[in-house]
Every structure is written in C-alpha cells, then in structure tokens.
Amino acid sequence: MSSIQVICGDKSFAVRFNAGETLLSALRRAGVSIPAACVGRGKCGKCRVSVNSVSRLACKVIPTDGDVITLPETSGGMILTDTIEISPAETNETGYAAAVDLGTTTVAVRLYELSSSRELGTVSRWNAQASYGADVISRIQHTIDDPDGLKTLSDRIRKQVSELIALLMRGHELRELKTIVIAGNTVMQHIFAGCEVKSIAVAPFKPETLFWEPVRDDLLGAQIVYSPCVAGYVGGDITAGLLASGLYEKDGCFLFLDIGTNGEMAIGGRGGFTCCAVASGPAFEGAGISCGMAGIGGAISHVRYDNGFLYDVIGSETPRGLCGSGLIDLVAALIRLGVIDESGRLLPPCDVPEKMRRYVTADDNGNGVFHLTPEVYLTAADVRNLQLAKAAVAAGVQVLLNSRGKSAEELDGVYIAGGFGTYIDIGSAMDIGMLPRLGKSLLHCLGNTSLAGASMAALSSERRGTLLEIAEKCGYIELSGRQDFTQYFTDNMTF
User: Which listed site, 111, 220, 444, 463, has its alpha carbon 20 to 30 Å from 311?
Assistant: First the structure.
C-alpha cells in the first residue's frame, strides 16, 4: 500500500492509501479531521489542503505515492466555553465528574472536583466528525450509506471526548472519575451512544430514544448520563440550556433560542415550554458560503461601514473568509447601502449607488458579486443561503409566539444561547429580519448553556432529576408540513 506524508503544524506523519481512493477518504481513515461541509462532493471548497505545495480540494485529489500534504491550521478559533456561573452543589461524593457539550461543530469538556464543586479546567476542540459533513443530516446520511458509518462516527467522537477528559485528568486518578454528563442535540447523543439515527431523518422523525430512561453506557470507567431530549430535533442541549437559564422556575413568557447548524427554540416559563426546531443550515457557522469559514484565525467576524468598509479579523491575521457573525453584519450593511435589495438580490454594478460600484462586479447571471477584500467576496447564492436560514428562524419564532397567543412585544425576555448570542451583533440580526425588533433590555445572552447545564447536572443528582422534569414539561411542534410555518417562511424571505 502506498503512502503520503502529512504535515500539520509541527507534526509530520505517514498515511497509507488505497489505489483510486480520494485524499479526503484516506485522511478520514487515518483519523484526520478536516472540514467537508458537502461530504466530499466538491461543492463547498472547505477541504482545501496543500498537495506538494499546490492548493487542492482533498475530495478531488487521488494521491500518489510520496505526496506531501500540508493541512491548514485550525487552532485559535472561537469555540465558546464561557458560561454563567455554576453554583456549588451540596454533595457528599468524592472524586471527579465531567460535563460535555457535544455540538455538531464543536466539543467542549469541563472537569469538576465533586467534594468542592471546584472547576479544574475546560478544553474544547472542533468536532472530529467534521469531515463527514457540517450538519446532522450529513452525519445521518453517512450512517445510511456506509454499513460501518454509525460505528465510525461513534468511535471517532467517543475517542475525542476520551482524549479531552484524559487531558483534564492529568495529575488526578482516572479511576476516580465518577460521572460524565453529555448534552447535545438528539442526533449527536444517539451517535455517541451508538444508537441508530436513520428514523430521525424521515417523518415522523421519531428517535430511538429520548434518553428519559438511563442508558447503560460508560466511558473511561465512568457512568455516562445523557441529558433528556424533547424530540428528534430538540435535544439534550436545549433541556440543559433551560436548566442553566433558570427560565423553568420563572413566572412569565420567555423565548429561548439556540441557533447553530440547527435552530432550536422554546417559549414558556415556570408552567413548561413549547419547543420547535428549524433547519437553519450551516450558513451561520460559515459553511455553504463561498468565502465562509469557521470562527478561526483569518475569519472576518464583524463588518461595519463608515465612509468605507471596516472589519474585525480573528487573530489579527490577513482576512481569509467570513464566519457567521461577519456574514450577517455584511449583509445587513449591504441592505442599508442599497447593494442588496428587499427581495435579496445582490445588484449588479450598474444598479448600486455610485459610491458602491468599486466594490461590485457582475456574475454570468447578471447578479452582483460584492468584494470586501480581494480574497473575500459575497455572491448572490451566499445571500440566498442566508435568506433561507434567517427566514426559517423567523418563521419558527412566529409559530411559537402564536402557540402561546403572544406577540413579540408581549414577551418578558428573549434569552439567546451559544455563539449566536455571544458573537453575532443582535442589531444586525434584527436588521435582516431574523429576530423580532425588541428593546435591548429584553435581550439576554447566556453563553454556552449546554455546557453550563451539563456542568450543573454533573455536580448534582438532584439537578439531573430537574433536567428530566424540564423535558417532561416540554411540548413539541413539528413544523414540517404546517401551512402557517410555510407561509411565515415565505413572508420572511425578503429583507
């Protein structure tokens, strides 16, 4: 079997490959994770690597013996591990417990000493399944297409979490690790547990389990506790988030949003919640966008206009692309400046204000292409992908409001979890019509509530009971096939 030499940072190692196998496939088998939002179809451009000093797409390269592959650096990204303060738990237990935020894109692990509730450390990484697609549908499809697909994905994520926990446990006795609490969306929890996920991809989207009953599972000798889910697309990350937010014990009507590759949301308060989920797609995390990228070094994270375009770049590096927050800022600015019209069309140079013409070229279909820098640009298709994502979120919010007979103005607060609330300019999200326009006093950004809720449950069996109570008091609205959702989605496509 032939081999290639792979260089990643200061590491170098050999990878064997089969005749006719793509470079992406060979890297996958070797456990190397590089982004492949389109699952290797050559459409997303995210699996770009250097092959013998030439930039190529790994999914389009058939390697030859002796090739030298240089992988891009993916460190230094904005993986959100900031949480609200976790209150100590009264317990007589000794040893350690770990909390895991099992995201589709990222994974974060936190370790606690049980006797003192003291946090010993937090580590995070990009999800090792990234080369199998940017969203859960791609991951599900891999389990269908490949007879060993479920095992491959499960083994990969369990290995990654094991390594992160072991990293935190250095200097401590691993045998003293008592509990690991996993909080993720329903699909990610299923894959971690090795449960089939095919049924979640087709109507009626019924998962094999909601994790309301304990699952006999362990990792590194510790018992695994899965956060209870509500439905196929409202997972344990949402119940953990509702626990962390404290909304389950508040009087009033509150909207809770966790927007990522999936848009999961809930409305309610002390009396329980109504939940739904929308397929917002990976646009908010940089996938499916021509110059989109994750929030890593070189990504433009914020854009504004003041007699010229100003932008922030993560890591103060040369700008290489747009992450989700930068994309939303840029589109909001271009709407205000008349470069994108109300229908969402990116106008050609002849139709934009004169001061904008130097930034715009025309594509083959008569649409504009906006150039923020010589390397970073926005196409009509990019705007369309953002429209689809923001319309889905806005329509889901409206269905939830209707379920409670409320208008947006009658809400007692909007609580936004995850990177969406932390990094994205809420004003820009309102400007593009993604979120209802509300006063700033009603908006609350909570950080990583999935990790916070998992941490609370890791420290206390009583809080694990509360997680289940929250799930049991959640209703669910399936949006697919609903005429009102379809109408709201259509209405919210425009800017």
Answer: 444
